[in-house]
Amino acid sequence: MKILITGASGFIGSFIVEEAIRQGFETWAAIRRSSSKDYLQDPRIHFIELDLSSESKLVEQLQNCSFDYVVHAAGATKCLNKADFARINTEGTKNLVTALRILQMPIQRFVFISSLSIMGAIREKLPYQEICETDTPQPNTAYGKSKLQAEQWLDTQKDFPYVILRPTGVYGPREKDYFLQFKSIKGHTDFAVGHQRQDITFVYVSDVVQAVFLALEKGKTGRRYFLSDGEVYQSADFSNLIHEALGRPWWIRITAPIWLLRIVTTCGEWIGHITGKVTALNNDKFNILKQRNWRCDITPAINELGYKPQVKLEEGVRKSVEWYQAKGWL
């Protein structure tokens, strides 16, 4: 069976490629000309350059191909301009699916990697409840809006076998955003935002990969599945586990008020536009950090896919630290 994986050089995509190889798929990694192949060294990987910005180019690039499965993991999580999220995450998805349909590709399953961010801050008051399918998404970030728009467009594609996965915060080896917190604590400083209780969720990258292949096998067309490790954590838990895994270096914990974060991210966004470099401190990050509730209900994934989270936060943080240290990141 042949599988095409977009975003193959990225954090999650590269692990999906490895699992596809392990399971015996003829694995095609979709990359850009500028993509790094650092995590794509297996000689059994087939490479294909795809331009997701152009439907016509995709038709040309895919015309001599035939795939049984497609995992669409490509996307942007940080952009200088808000419009770029829609261009990459929404329009890129439209272009890919349209090209596959024009070519009458015999796709058995198309798995789209979306995000819990599409829900937004819909339940910010105590008592917290699980997010369920009856909730109406209200994304409060440009990233979340672009993923939701892609989901909604997929809903218009009749007789197309798509399944949507909505992971919460994904962490693990090779990840670069959460890594900044590891690096900060290694440097003796931990930053937190807001003084109200914050319920957060995580999912280790290997569990996301597990869900991808379960969705390829068992996912119901048109269904959405939230993904987490099944636990709910408080905002300090992640920092405490990182601190423990690093051998308890001395540290200072700083809790900044929300209004100060607003100033910092506004300045970060302004500096990014001046320098032309995307910064992690932007307006989307402000909305993410100020949100107090990141719960999600993974029961459908458990019942329908057979999803069983294998890695809880303590183990995942330890594995991440070991990898970062082995690679000289920490």
TrEMBL record:
It comes from the Bacteria. InterPro entries: Epimerase_deHydtase, NAD(P)-bd_dom_sf. Residues 3-225 form the NAD-dependent epimerase/dehydratase domain. PANTHER family: DTDP-D-GLUCOSE 4,6-DEHYDRATASE-RELATED. Belongs to the NAD(P)-dependent epimerase/dehydratase family. This is NAD(P)-dependent oxidoreductase. It comes from Xylanibacter brevis.
